[in-house]
Amino acid sequence: MPSKNSINRPKLTTNVRSKQQTLARKRDARERKGHFTLARSEEGSRSGEAKSAPVDLYFGRESPATRRAQPGRGGLTTKTLSKKRAKKIERNLKYAAQRRLLTDVQANSEGADDDEMSVDATGQAKAIARKQDIAAKKASKNSGSLVREALWKAIEDAGSQGLTLQTGNGTTLGGPFFP
Amino acid sequence: MDLAVSHEDSQILLKDKNVLQESVVDKYRTAGQITQTALKYLTGLINDLYHYKTIQRPMTIAELCLLTDSFMVTRLEQFYKNKVNERGIAIPTTIDVDQVSSGWSPEVDDTKNLLNWNKETTSPEDSLFSSVSGILKAGDVIKITLGVHIDGYTSEVSHTMVIYPVAVNEAGATVPAGPLLDVKADAIAATHIATETVVALLACALTPEKLPTSLGNVVNGQLIRLVVDTIARSYNCGVVPGSRVRRIRRFLAGQNEGIVAEREYKGVVWTESHQEAQLLINSDVKDLTVATSSTRSAPSAVPVDDFTVNAGEVFMIDLKIAPLGQVSKKGLITLEVVDSARGKSHRKDELVARAGLFVRDYAQAHALKLKTSRKLLTSIDNNGVYPFKLSHLSPNFPIDPTKDYDEQISALDKDLKSFRLGMSEIANNYLCVETPIEIAKWVPWDHVLKESNQNGALSYDATANLTLPGHEVPLPKLGIAALKLKSLVRSCPETIDLPVVRECTTVVLCDSDVSSGERPELLRLTGGSKTSQPSWIHSDYELNNEDPTVQGIFQLAELVKDKRFGLVVRETQPMKQTVSQGAAEETGMQM
Amino acid sequence: MSGVYTCNSCSLGFDSSQDQRDHMKTEWHRYNLKRRVAQLPAISELVFNTKVRALSQAESEDDARKRDEKKQLTKKEIRRREKEALLEKKKKLLALAQENYLKNKALAENQAQKENTEAEKEVKEEQTAPVVTEENVPTEEAAAPAVPDEELTEEQLAERLMNQKLESKVDIPLETCLFCTNESFKDFETNLDHMFKNHGFYIPEQKFLTDKEGLVHYLSEKIGLGNMCIVCNYQGRSLEAVRAHMLAKRHCKIPYESENERLEISEFYDFTASYAGYAENTKKTQEPSEVVADDGNDEWEDVSSDEENAEATEDNDEDEDDLPDEYLYNDGTELHLPTGVKVGHRSLQRYYKQNLKPERILTEGQGTLVAAETRTFLPAFDKQKYNVKQRAWKSENMDKKREDKRHAKFVNNQPYYRDQLLQ
């Protein structure tokens, strides 16, 4: 280890640059392999959910990243699922079902008035809820179009002309003189 | 802003000085008399020029404005001399023809320029040509606006006149050839009736028990809007943005609207957003608030309709109404600011003119470079807080019509040259804001709906004209900003100009302690039957008696006519031309 | 005299080398060595001892005093002091002469000018002598070296000096030019005209001048009797010398700048007329009419630097500043002149030089608008807040740098790293 004042002390800039280059190279490689995660806004994005290749394999789901990277290849993957792992997943699912049953009972007993506090709101559930919120917001964003529609309706509505009346004698003001 | 007024001082200036007392009412009344006299003088001049034709020499609008301003100043000289610090013209005379909505007050040296600038764009057949040439023609609807203030107590007036083709009747007198039958007649009728009704409504604020039951039990902003909108709709007209029925206070008579975000604004204003809300009233869009809370000013500065009219206040009723008889579709009435720049982007029929009126913005401070500008700014600061014309700052103002007229005009011309040089620097640094010349435009709603984009609300118009706080976005529900609306108006081939009719009157709600009689009365400072009689018109429309609001309006008219039990409305009369020392000739006039 | 060991300079013999060495260290031997170098015969020890004793006695007498004076007073300083004292003396003499002249003049007027000039001189002499005796005390040192060989008292000395002066006095009549040698004219006015044209002899403030002959006579006495230049008070040896000096230096005018110079000739003037005019002036127009510009108070500056004052300074020669003192007072920071002009002290110069924007006084209308205004503008630049922010940025930067440094320490942390320099 060279000292702080050593003539051979490695220069910061070169190191940083090489580090960035390495990172970039790795990022490129991952993208080429299709390991790159989808944007959170994309439909297939499973952001917020636990990432697990074995679980995907267990359920036969193909990972969205692979699907995008190699569209024609279907569910082809190099990942394998061991027998032991499969057993574990099975067991966990069973426990999860039991837990959910328990919380349902609890919720019923408490009158189901506090959804927020439910223990079951795991990361996955939270993510789903958030997505629904966003969708609702997107719909409400189009309130401008709602106004627009209402305005179109008002324009085309001939009946909303108001109180104009042309049947009487009309109005005469002033007289034949210059005020 | 480096200026500040202490809390005590602001209490005195905003509250104590606005309490109606004998002396205050007297100042208001004197201001009203001078205003009425000046209006009478100008209408007399115009009648002599275009109807009786007793004045042979043609006079342009610029000259008429200058003469009337001089008249006002010379009249003001006789009152409250050395008794008050500030008195003067509250709004220089403007004469707006047809579609020009406000602000047309050219200087005397502008006449030639205007013809030159609009050489290619305006033909003599055009309705704008009267404005450009300064010579009126038969069929023109002209709006005269002027006002004076004494010690900040302001009276303003607007009146609409029609230039008629003349005929001679059996008695040998010169009379109009016939009533005006155009769509303009609808607007004149609507404006006249609306103004008188609002005056009666405000009189009801003094005695709320006399208010017709169909109109509710209290005079508030919503009621005023309802009444005006109903009358306008009945005559197939629309209220032009910029109309307002507002409380005025000492030195705060609406002359700085859009510049100063006035604390405790109280009044009904009409903007584009109100037309939008009116259309949406039957739809399922729930939130119809038109004013947004402005981030740049206090909440009380945002004009909203939630207010009650109280005794002891002074109100200005300034209504501009445009007829919609010539359009078949529903459309938006908006205002377009006349630009003084000429370029390739200008349309063929577009008016080119520069504003004649300026308002000082005291919040801005800047060290000016030119000596001319500094000198000019000093004289502007001495001039007061009201709008001014450059010619008012000249030592040759006011002109004396009895002396050599041409010589005075040329002397004024010379002064104006250096003033314009200084003014450009002052205006570029926002020390003064020019009062824009506005033209009423009609643009069909379908064009607005088709064209608008979503980002309109975010766009910012650097050239935006004066907007009230909270009303910066003209169409907030659609999200269309001023810049977008401007381009929409320009881009739509169906856009047309609308003639505008304007009536403005100032009224003082005197409670019984300051009224001349026993009962509380409404003192009408300007307008009324002596000076602001409507021109001879006939409209095919009339008010529908089945409508409960209209019934209330009829009842109000009855109440004003009833001398014993009705509303007391007194009008300030113009001074006799021969009497110089105006002993207040004021008679109880009933509407 | 025996022994192998000798001292040649003292011509002595010694028995042992020790003795000889001891001798060599004595002062006597050193003295004799010096004498030998100067080719003088050696002296015996006895003589040397007596010499030393005599010298040491003389030294001890004025040892401390003399050494001090000699060291501190340089020749230049001494000369300067002498000169000053002389000048002082001369001034006093002149003042005396002036006083006497005035007294005589008054006397002469009273006695209807019957006595001749010689009688006057005698009177003058009689009166001068006792006064001089009183006043001549401080001039003692300066007078002493002038006549070192004679033992005279100061009174006698002054008397003698005065006599010398009076003897050498040249009467310059009014019709004769003060500066040219023996140029006479037919009357006083033509003489004045000549002096004005040829020598620039200008009499200031002629409007208020009451005794023109007296003034010129006074000046002529100053030149003729005192042999003094009228401008710089140069003392010539003779009339010719002082005339040559005045012509050469162009000192042919009446100095009229400083307070003292004005006071010197103030007897011949009468300024009461100007006071009356001043009083009227101030009553009619409040405009300050003049500004004092005397060198005695030159550390005062004009505070109210308006155009009017600038104008006023230009025409200040008519009005005078010899106004009663009660109008003029000093309140510590400013000097209030009777004209209404305030003069500030130089120490506050930087504040007077500031060109501050005058405070704006709002009219009621403007005040109302400002009071009703609710617009909010960008907040003004707050230096304190900015400084806090800047400190935060600085510490942020420092943190970042430290992190980088620490990180870089382990960038090249290889297990078998060998430093190139240590190979």
From TrEMBL, chain A:
GO BP term (any one): ribosome biogenesis
Keywords: Cytoplasm, Nucleus, Ribosome biogenesis, Transport
Highest taxon in the source lineage: Eukaryota
Annotated Basic and acidic residues bias: 40-49
Protein's UniProt keywords contain Plastid: no
GO cellular component: cytoplasm; nucleus
Biased composition (Polar residues): 1-23
Pfam family, one: Alb1
InterPro entries: Ribosome_bgen_Alb1
Compartments, record wording: Cytoplasm; Nucleus
Segments for region (Disordered): 1-85
Protein name (Swiss-Prot/TrEMBL): Alb1 protein
Gene source species: Maudiozyma humilis (Sour dough yeast)
TrEMBL record, chain B:
Protein keywords: Cytoplasm, Hydrolase, Metal-binding, Metalloprotease, Nucleus, Protease
CC annotations in GO: cytoplasm; nucleus
Subcellular location, principal: cytoplasm
Record keyword rRNA processing present: no
Gene3D superfamilies documented for this protein: Creatinase/methionine aminopeptidase superfamily (3.90.230.10), Winged helix-like DNA-binding domain superfamily/Winged helix DNA-binding domain (1.10.10.10)
A biological-process GO annotation: proteolysis
GO molecular function: metal ion binding; metallopeptidase activity
Compartment annotation: Cytoplasm; Nucleus
Coiled-coil blocks: none
Described function: Probable metalloprotease involved in proper assembly of pre-ribosomal particles during the biogenesis of the 60S ribosomal subunit. Accompanies the pre-60S particles to the cytoplasm.
Family of this protein: Belongs to the peptidase M24 family.
Name this protein carries in UniProt: Probable metalloprotease ARX1
Protein species of origin: Maudiozyma humilis
Automatic annotation (TrEMBL), chain C:
SMART domains named among the record's database cross-references: ZnF_C2H2 (SM00355), ZnF_U1 (SM00451)
Biased composition (Basic and acidic residues): 63-76, 115-127, 396-406
Feature: compositional bias, Acidic residues: 292-325
Listed GO CC annotations: cytoplasm; preribosome, large subunit precursor
Location, primary (coarse class): cytoplasm
C2H2-type domain sequence ranges: 7-29
InterPro entries cross-referenced by the UniProt entry: Matrin/U1-like-C_Znf_C2H2, ZN622/Rei1/Reh1_Znf-C2H2, Znf622/Rei1/Reh1, Znf_C2H2_type
Region named Disordered: 55-76, 111-151, 281-327, 396-423
Molecular functions per Gene Ontology: nucleic acid binding; zinc ion binding
Biological process annotations from GO: ribosomal large subunit biogenesis
Keyword terms of this UniProt record: Cytoplasm, Metal-binding, Repeat, Ribosome biogenesis, Zinc, Zinc-finger
Keyword Zinc: yes
Family that this chain belongs to: Belongs to the REI1 family.
Protein name: Rei1 protein
